[in-house]
Each structure stands twice: as C-alpha cells, then as structure tokens.
Amino acid sequence: MTDPLPLDEQLCFSLYAASMAVGRAYKPLLDALGITYPQYLVLHALWEQDGRTIGAIAARLALESSTVTPLVKRLETAGHVMRRRDADDERQVRVMLTDDGRAMRERCGCLGETLVRRSGMTLAQVDALNRQIAALRVALVEGGAAAQE
Fold it and tell me: At 93, is the secondary structure helix, strand, or coil?
C-alpha cells in the first residue's frame, strides 16, 4: 500500500483551501452589504436570469432545492427578492428581484476586482485558471455520470 500524498499535493485540498481563501476575501465586502456568500450566489443567479424557480436556482448553483429555499427566504426578509407561485404550475415557486435586489448588483461589482487584486495575478491569469477549474468540474460531472451508466 502506498502512502497518501501530502495534503498540499492533493488537488482536492488545493481547491478546498482556495475556495476558503476566496470566501475570506469576499467576507468583509459581503458583510458590509448584509449578505452571505451563498446569498450572493443566489442573487447572482437571479441577475443572470430573473424569475427563476427555486429548482432552477438550485440547478444553476449545483445545490439542492432544500438548501436554496432558506437562502431565498432570508433574502426575501431582507427585501432583496420576492417569491411568487408560478401561474402555470402552482407547485413551482418563482423568485424575482426587487428594486433593492437589482441595485445590489452594482454594490457587488467590486468583488471580482478585489479577488484579482488580492491574488496578485493578472485578470488573464485568473480567467485562465477559472476556465481550467470549470473544465475540471465538467469532466468530473460527465465522468461521474458515465461511471453510473
């Protein structure tokens, strides 16, 4: 039996640790806006396409609907979104941005700039890294689906 690689040489740990570092970099900015990182992700999904269902937001964020629902409820309480039953299918709950939720987009614009500045990398380097990580995610999802067939 071979010894496991040290943590710093394992991709899973590097990705986890980098994700934690990104969260720590964003936290003061998000705290000032009164939202958490998961709430920011829900808002971002709605900035991409307003009026998504809870299920569509969950799919976009690779989360379970049961995880997204409390996030949406907290955003609704804060006045950033409103929930409405779908007129065509009352089982579906649609989430729409309020004026405040749309305005939050401008206030969150500095997050990416902060990450690039704190990383010491160029925008091109961060973009290339992001594309590599996205390709890894797709390969793992597709590979996992193929392994289950």
Answer: strand
